[in-house]
Design goal:
about 110 residues, about 0% strand, mainly alpha
Length: about 110
Amino acid sequence: MSAQQSNALPLPDYDQLPAGSVEHRIRSLGSDDVRRLLEYEQAHADRTQVKQTLTARLDQLESGAQPSPGDPNAPGPDIPSDTPGGSPVSPASAAEPEEPLRHGKHEM
């Protein structure tokens, strides 16, 4: 596909999407659109994780699943910007250990 053809993909800027966001963006697409993305992915970036995600969604749709409502162009979940790198994970949100410390281990 040429650059003009890649603009005709069901997800704008598909080439710039990180693999993790593809799963959320394709939920509102029908099987024809998912199949187009899979063919494009195989011919271009050929990312294993993305191909698996697209194939799994295509299988779901062919088994009777319906596209969910929503805008495939909507941004992903909000990530708090007050943590370095924008990650919602912080030491304060870490789970407490479930087992007592054993001899020879110490907390830092």
